[in-house]
Write a sequence for this structure.
């Protein structure tokens, strides 16, 4: 079983071979028709009716933006509703409207420590009614989605592309799985094409610190000495 991330220190380089690179699309369901506000779940109605500047305003702003995007509201109307109900920066609307999933009930019922975590148990906004147990989350409630068949009343759009990479680390002799962003995946594809054009190159992996987070980084370097080859290298 491959490990999730190769265990190594920041900046430590390891020669690796790519065993597979899979492009994956994250999809977002959006209703064809806007849900009636009368059909909104209790938690969303509570967000709309609470003081805009209250505790957790960034969390509720993100939840409302993602909800309005999925239940079928056009940008102008969604923006009007959102601005009337929130006191948060415009960037939150832009980051969440038709770009992020509205959290399900299980996530909303957690006690959040602050944005970007979206649990609202500490805000007292989750007030289930008789219909709530029938639905997974606010979007399903508003659009009355009781089963997958109900999703036929909407469409799926791609909101994010990621790459799932499986490598063999020659330093440790182990396989590993790495999740790459779209930009990181496309950069790796270009490196692999360059490597294929010159067989005297080897692929090197390391992790670098970027804005406080360790990010995967790949590069090519000249092959200095013979090395054990995988079957995939020989074919």
């Amino acid at each position: 079983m491959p490990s999730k991330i190769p265990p190594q220190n920041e900046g430590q380089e390891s020669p690796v071979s790519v065993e597979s690179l899979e492009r994956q699309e994250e999809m977002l369901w959006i209703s064809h028709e806007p849900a009636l506000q009368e059909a909104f779940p209790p938690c969303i109605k509570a967000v709309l009716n609470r003081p805009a500047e209250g505790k957790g305003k960034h969390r509720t702003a993100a939840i409302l933006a993602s909800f309005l995007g999925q239940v079928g509201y056009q940008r102008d109307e969604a923006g009007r509703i959102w601005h009337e109900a929130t006191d948060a920066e415009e960037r939150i609307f832009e980051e969440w409207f038709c770009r992020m999933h509205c959290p399900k009930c299980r996530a909303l019922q957690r006690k959040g420590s602050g944005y970007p975590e979206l649990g609202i148990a500490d805000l007292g906004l989750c007030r289930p009614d008789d219909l709530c147990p029938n639905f997974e989350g606010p979007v399903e409630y508003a659009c009355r989605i009781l089963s997958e068949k109900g999703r036929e009343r909407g469409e799926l759009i791609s909101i994010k592309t990621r790459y799932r990479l499986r490598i063999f680390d020659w330093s440790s002799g182990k396989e590993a799985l790495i999740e790459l962003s779209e930009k990181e995946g496309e950069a790796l594809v270009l490196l692999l094409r360059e490597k294929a054009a010159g067989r005297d190159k080897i692929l090197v992996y390391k992790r670098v610190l970027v804005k406080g987070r360790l990010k995967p980084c790949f590069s090519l370097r000249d092959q200095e000495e013979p090395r054990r080859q995988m079957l995939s290298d020989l074919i």
About this structure: The chain has two domains: 14-25+161-234, 36-142. The helical segments are 42-49, 57-70, 75-85, 90-96, 105-108, 138-142, 182-197, 231-234.
